[in-house]
């Protein structure tokens, strides 16, 4: 009986952690906003090889809310196009997100 009680508590904690994980994983609606007016480079890794270019106003999906910093201290975030054809990293300052709208 005691083992069953402990087992049920563990299950409840697991389910709570699982629900918190999924409730915070919504994707933010973001758009390319490069102040230079040139297409934004999408890179394979922060400050890495260019794998695509996106025009201003292009919608993107913010994959990870954590910024990655290169050796120069610049922040990079992982994004994907809504069709998931291009996934890579972009300079954080060139993406504008509306966290009130999520996909």
From TrEMBL:
Q: Which residues form the SH3b domain?
A: 40-95
Point out the signal peptide segment: 1-28
Pfam families in the record: SH3_3
Keyword annotations of the record: Signal
Q: Which domain of life is it from?
A: Bacteria
Spell out the coiled coil positions from the record: none
Know the name of this protein? SH3 domain-containing protein
Organism equals Neisseria animalis
């Amino acid at each position: 009986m005691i083992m069953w009680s402990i087992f049920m508590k563990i299950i409840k904690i697991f389910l709570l952690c699982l629900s918190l994980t999924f409730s915070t994983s919504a994707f933010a609606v973001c758009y390319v906003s490069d102040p230079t007016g040139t297409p934004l480079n999408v890179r394979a890794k922060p400050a890495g090889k260019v794998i695509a270019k996106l025009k201003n106003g292009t919608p993107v999906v913010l994959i990870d809310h954590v910024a990655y910093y290169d050796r120069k201290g610049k922040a990079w975030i992982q994004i994907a196009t809504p069709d998931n054809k291009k996934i890579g990293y972009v300079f954080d300052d060139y993406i504008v997100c509306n966290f009130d709208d999520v996909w």
